[in-house]
Amino acid sequence: MKKRFENQVVIITGASRGIGKGIALAFAAEGAHIVLNYASNVTAAEKAKAEIEAYGVRCAIVGGSVGDPDVAKALADTAVREFGRIDVLVNNAGISKDGHLMMLADATWREVLDVNLNGTFYCTRAVLETMIAQGSGSIVNMSSSAGLRGRSGQVPYASTKGAVIGLTKQFARELGPKGIRVNAIAPGFVETDMIDGLLGRPGVRDAFIAATPVGRLGTPEDIATATTFLASEESGYITGHVTMINGGLLM
């Protein structure tokens, strides 16, 4: 039986660990070749590449922060050079540096803005020439439940994730006539190393679970399932949509 993404090409940013790695493995299991971006940990990226290629597909890796437009261009150029096309872009890369408004350093604000918001813009812009020439493409942006309702102490993170939703809707309007769909995912609390420090604080894990109606934290696989759906032909009439995956935390 043909796999959903057989011989398609998927770029995933921030994919050496956590949610991004889970997404990359889900696409690889469905037959996609992967262009994997990582920020700094080449060892983790090489390990992820080996796990991806165990599915019988190919994987190219590109290092660097997506807040650098040259890195975004390198991702698109690598996909075209290695595989000849770009079918899906998953703008997953993100960082969280908590801070209350009155205590937030300018450098922290700029750093989170560069990765979470500018990176989404740069990577989307970089793939458009190829997707427009193909007349097809799907882009999935990673927002957050914090971007929908705010979260105390997370001024830069919540602000940028809310802005990603605005970008998603704007891109969907502009690119729909060119055959390109753009959607977003807004996860709740997902158990990854990004929030390990937070979950390790006394009572925090239990509080998160108690606040979630389904009674558990999310997993990278929960997010990956939704991402592959939004990227596939099964969601061909969906664009500009924000899919909330949070176990009922936010309704």
Query: Strand-and-helix sequence, N→C?
Result: EHEHEHEHEHHEHHHE
Give the % helix.
Answer: 40-55%
**Structural class designation:** alpha/beta
Assign an overall shape: globular
Please tell me the overall pLDDT. Answer: 94
Tally the beta strands.
7
Low-confidence segments: none
Beta-strand content estimate: 5-15%
First-last Cα distance: 37 Å
Tally of alpha and pi helices = 9
> What can be said about the biggest beta sheet?
7 strands, parallel
Strand order of the largest sheet: 3-2-1-4-5-6-7
Rg on CA atoms, Å = 17 Å
Can you walk through the features of this model?
With 251 residues, the chain is an alpha/beta fold. It is built from 9 helices and 7 strands, in the order βαβαβαβαβααβαααβ. It has helices spanning 18-29, 42-53, 69-83, 106-134, 145-149, 155-175, 196-199, 204-211, 220-231, and strands spanning 9-12, 33-38, 59-63, 88-91, 137-142, 180-187, 242-245. The protein has a 7-stranded parallel sheet, with helices on both faces. Strand 1 (9-12), helix 1 and strand 2 form a beta-alpha-beta unit. The radius of gyration is 17 Å and the shape is globular.
